[in-house]
User: Which sequence fits this backbone?
């Protein structure tokens, strides 16, 4: 297992009147190369959870293991952990600061103590993998478009060559094509480089499209953990948690209720299309008989 | 009565300077926009990042003034500096990030900030605050600290802050982009209620196609111009054209379109689950 959480609990403001339990007894295993979606309403504890993965938050109790080693053991190199587990915060473009795009992306590797040449080649590779065109490398990170800024910020994390990439709502505010391009690129990275991806999102459609495993965080616990299809079958319960299923799930259930025998576990447009066409042709042949 | 929002050949330019070039570049953010919105309409504006939607929105409450052409809000020319406050009172604006818009330490003080700046007498301010908070369903939270609210609740407080200024129209620039599904639902419901029950004109800019289904009229922008307009049904029946503008349609519309392409007899531009279910079953 790459990342393991054992009985992890976290309490904010311990010993004060503002004491809030944010995570309660979380047990979780994350394997290499997984593409995990994390959903939960605002305040459910999902941001607290992901900050445990790279040691930004120390659990109040329990253990966090990376590659089998307890990251809170004395002497553990947390600094290097953060280069293995890259975290892209919400609105990462607000963290751009350098005079040009290439220099900005080189900042991470420079802090890893690499030579300038190595930093530059890492930065170029990361920009390329994030889909930033070369003519922008010398542009100021403040004059490029919002979607491009987001890619540059993600490249800044990729340049550190992480094994795990955690993204907190990377598509918020992007237009639909920008959303698809960015997530397509991330999926490509996972397929090509075998990195583990953990995607925190409010978009159920994105989760259905890209994730192979879905974690639902609710009131500091993992309420569901499984393939998106299976989890979305519990759409009524998800609603009580302030969440929802993709629109497709609702369509399939509505059709089924009206007697069209479609597969209610379909979550993407392509799957729904296949299932509806099949159900329609079956219905037509039954009528002929 | 004049249209609440009217634009004629509206254009906005800005000059971009760079270190190494002698000649500054003239950037055309929006151009030749003609627009006319009637009182009480619900208008949606779609367009990819950088298409000019926010630039257009900022002209509606005179945060930007036209480089060419004219924008009138309820008959008042936004280019006349002496009428600036008149325009801002007629058209209120809500932005994407609620945390950037809330300045009060207590919810009701935050909502009272706008009317206070308009010089409304104190008693009236409190009446307006009560009224605005109840319209967005947040009256029970009036004594709370805004920092402790959820995203959807914060955004409703931001909307109440605009409502308290009693504007004729509200412009919302991606108000739900940062919210979870419940927050999105709450905010959209409040916006629809303000439109239907209070008759406030709404201009909603969004990347969520499902939110557009309720609009009376949709404008699609690309390259600083309006490239498509019509009812949601008219606009969403052109799936391929929308995709060429980096946009999409609601999943139910896309599914219906895909099924129709595969030979299933369905009407054009299906917008809701009920419509699709009825057509298929």
Assistant:
């Amino acid at each position: 297992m790459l990342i393991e959480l054992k009985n992890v609990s976290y309490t904010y403001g311990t010993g004060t009147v503002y004491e809030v339990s944010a995570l309660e007894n979380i047990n979780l295993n994350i394997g290499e190369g997984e593409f995990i979606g994390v959903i939960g309403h605002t305040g459910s504890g999902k941001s607290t959870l992901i900050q445990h993965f790279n040691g930004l938050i120390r659990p109040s109790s329990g253990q966090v293991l990376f590659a089998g080693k307890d990251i809170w053991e004395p002497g553990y190199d947390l600094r290097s952990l953060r280069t293995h587990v890259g975290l892209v915060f919400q609105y990462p473009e607000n963290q751009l600061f350098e005079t040009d795009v290439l220099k900005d992306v080189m900042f991470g590797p420079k802090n890893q103590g690499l030579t300038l040449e190595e930093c530059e080649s890492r930065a170029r590779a990361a920009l390329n993998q994030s889909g930033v065109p070369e003519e922008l490398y010398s542009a100021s990170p403040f004059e490029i478009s919002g979607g491009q800024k987001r890619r540059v910020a993600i490249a800044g994390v990729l340049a550190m060559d992480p094994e795990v990439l955690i993204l907190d709502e990377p598509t918020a505010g992007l237009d639909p094509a920008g959303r698809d391009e960015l997530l397509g690129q991330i999926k490509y990275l996972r397929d090509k480089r075998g990195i583990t991806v953990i995607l925190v999102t409010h978009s159920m459609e994105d989760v259905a499209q890209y994730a192979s495993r879905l974690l639902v965080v609710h009131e500091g616990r993992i309420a569901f953990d499984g393939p998106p299809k299976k989890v979305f079958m519990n759409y009524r319960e998800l609603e009580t948690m302030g969440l929802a299923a993709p629109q497709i799930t609702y369509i399939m259930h509505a059709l089924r209720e009206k007697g069209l025998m479609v597969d209610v576990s379909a979550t993407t447009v392509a799957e729904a299309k296949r299932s509806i066409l099949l159900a329609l042709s079956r219905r037509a042949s039954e009528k002929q008989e | 009565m004049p249209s609440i929002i009217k634009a004629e050949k509206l254009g906005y330019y800005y000059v971009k300077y760079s270190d190494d070039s002698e000649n500054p570049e003239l950037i055309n953010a929006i151009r030749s926009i003609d627009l006319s919105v009637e009182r009480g309409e619900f208008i949606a504006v779609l367009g990819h990042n950088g298409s000019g939607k926010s630039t257009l929105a900022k002209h509606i409450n005179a945060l930007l003034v036209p480089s060419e052409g004219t924008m009138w809000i309820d008959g008042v020319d936004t280019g006349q500096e002496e009428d600036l406050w008149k325009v801002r009172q007629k058209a209120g604006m809500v932005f994407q990030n609620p945390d950037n818009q809330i300045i009060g330490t207590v919810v009701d003080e935050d909502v009272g900030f706008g009317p206070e700046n308009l010089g409304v007498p104190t008693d009236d301010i409190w009446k307006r605050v009560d009224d605005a908070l109840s319209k967005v369903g947040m009256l029970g939270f009036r004594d709370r600290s805004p920092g402790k609210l959820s995203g959807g609740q914060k955004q409703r407080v931001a909307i109440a802050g605009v409502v308290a200024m009693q504007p004729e129209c509200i412009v919302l620039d991606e108000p739900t982009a940062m919210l979870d599904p419940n927050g999105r639902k709450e905010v959209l419901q409040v916006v629809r209620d303000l439109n239907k029950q209070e008759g406030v004109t709404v201009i909603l800019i969004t990347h969520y196609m499902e939110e557009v289904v309720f609009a009376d009229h949709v404008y699609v922008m690309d390259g600083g111009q309006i490239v498509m307009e019509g009812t949601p049904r008219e606009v969403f029946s052109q799936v391929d054209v929308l995709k060429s503008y980096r946009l999409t349609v609601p999943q139910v519309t896309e599914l219906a379109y895909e099924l129709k392409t595969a030979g299933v007899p369905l009407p054009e531009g299906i917008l809701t689950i009920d419509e699709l279910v009825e057509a298929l079953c």
User: Anything to note?
Assistant: Chain A touches chain B through 39 residues (CB under 8 Å).
